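call fold(seq) -> C-alpha cells
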Amino acid sequence: MVLTRAQLGMESPLVRVEVNVARGVPSLQIIGMPETTVREARDRVKTAILNSGLEFPVARITINLSPAELPKQGARFDLAIALGILVANETIEEGELPHLECYGELALDGAVRRIDGVLPALIAAQKAQHCALVPAANRAEAALLREPSAYAVASLAAAVRHIEKISILPFIEPQLLPPQPQGVADIADVHGQEQAKRALLLAAAGGHHVLFVGPPGTGKTMLAQRLIGLMPPLPEQEALEVAAISSLTGAKFQPEHWRQRPFRAPHHSCSAAALVGGGSIPRPGEITLAHRGILFMDELTETPRHVLDSLREPLESGRVSISRARQQVTFPARFQLVCALNPSPCGTFNGDIQSSRSTPEQILKYLGKISGPFLDRIDLQVDVPRQPEALRSMHGKQHSNSKHSSNNGPDSVSDTETSPQTTSALLQAAVVAAQQQQIARQGCLNHALSAKEVERVAALQPEDHEFLVTAMETLMLSHRAYHRTLRLARTIADLAEAQQLCREHLLEALSYRALDALLSQLRAL
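ret:
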C-alpha cells in the first residue's frame, strides 16, 4: 500500500493505492472512481518502470484507489501507482512507504514531472505527520513549509533508491523569504483625487468595498491598484493559504511576491463560471484567486448583470460552493471588491448634464444595468472627477524640481523635502493601527460586523440616530445600507482614534454615496 492524496477543492483527502499482483492473463486494471487521466496511467507507469531498468510483472494487476467513492483526476497518482506495483511484485522492499506520501506524474523515460496543487497536499501531509516525495519541479512550493518534511525526486529510479536506502534524498530546506513584498505601487504616484485617496484609506482600514465613479482617464484603475500598498502584508499563515490556492492553478511561485495580497482584474467579458469557479471538475474562479486580496471589476456597467449578481452571496459569506452531480466543493473567497464605472455611456458626463452627449434617460438606462442588491453591498461610492488643477500643480512641481536640481552645492533642497507627498508606507501605518484597534475590540474588521455587533460598537446618540434615519429615507437606502453606513462611520472614528461616533463621522460616511446622489440628480431632471 502506498499513500498519496487527491484534490477536492481546497481539501486534499488521503488516498491509499492498493495493488494486487495475481496469476492470470496479463493486464492492468485501475478501479476506485478514476477519471480518464488516471486510467491512462496504465501505459505511462508500465513504460516508465521498464525504461528505468526495473522489472514490470507479467501478471494480472489490479490497482484500487481507496476510498472508492472519492473521484480521482490528474496524473498525480503515477508515482504512487508505480511504487505500489514494484512493492507488490517484491521488486523493492516496502520500507518506509506506509508513512511516505508520493506525488508526481511519470514521463515515459521514468522522469517525475511537476503536478498542480502539491502545496495543499503537503500541508495536509504535514498535519498527518507524514513525509512526502514530490517532483523536483515542485521544490519551490515545498520550500514554503517552515518544517522540512518533503524530498524532491527527479525520477522513478531515484525514488526507488531512496526507499531502499541506497541513496537517501535530503529534505527540502525552507526557503528564505523577504519580510515585505517588493514592487508594490505607491499612492504618491496619484496626483490630486484627495477624496478618492481618503476613501482608499478607509477601505484598507475597515475592509470595505469601493466603487469609483468617474469619466475615462481620471485615475480609477490607478487608484485601485494602489490599495494593495495601503493594506498590511499577509500574515505567514494567510500567505501560505494564498500560495496554496495559486498552486491549484499551476502558477509559478514568485518569492518577491511572498506575503503580497493578490490583485485580480478580470475582463468585463468574463463569464460567471470563470468569475466564481466551475467546470465539470470544479476549479477556483477569480474570486478565489483574489482571496485575502483585491478583486477589481473595471467597466462595471459592461459586465453582464447575472455575472455581477453571482458575487452577491460570496461577498456576504466569504466562500463559494460549487455543486456538481458527482461532487460538491467549497472554495474560500474572502476578497475586497473594488469597482469602477463611467457615469454615462458616452463617457463625457462629469456631473453636469450639459457636458454630456447622452440624455438623462440614456444615462439612467446605462446605470440601471447594475442591480440594487449588488450596489447595496458596496460601502464606499466615490466620485473621481476630472481635475485639471492636479495637472497644473504637477507641472509646477516638475519645474520646481528642475530649478532645485540646477542649484550648485550640497545645500540645495528638493521639492519632496519642502512639500512631502503622502506615501503608501505612511498610510499603511495608520491602517495597521486602526485594524489592531478593531481586532482588540471585536475580533474582526468593521466590514465583517454583524448587525447586532454594529449596534454595540457603533452606538449613536438619539439625535444622531434620528439624523441618520432621516438621511436614509431621503436617499431611499435599505436597512443593509443603514448598517453599512454605521460600519463605515465606525472606521472613520477608528482612524480618528475616537471612541464614540458623532455627527461628523456620519456626515463623512454619507458623503461616500456618489452613485446614489447621481441617480437622484438624474431622476429629478
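The chain has 24 helices and 18 strands.
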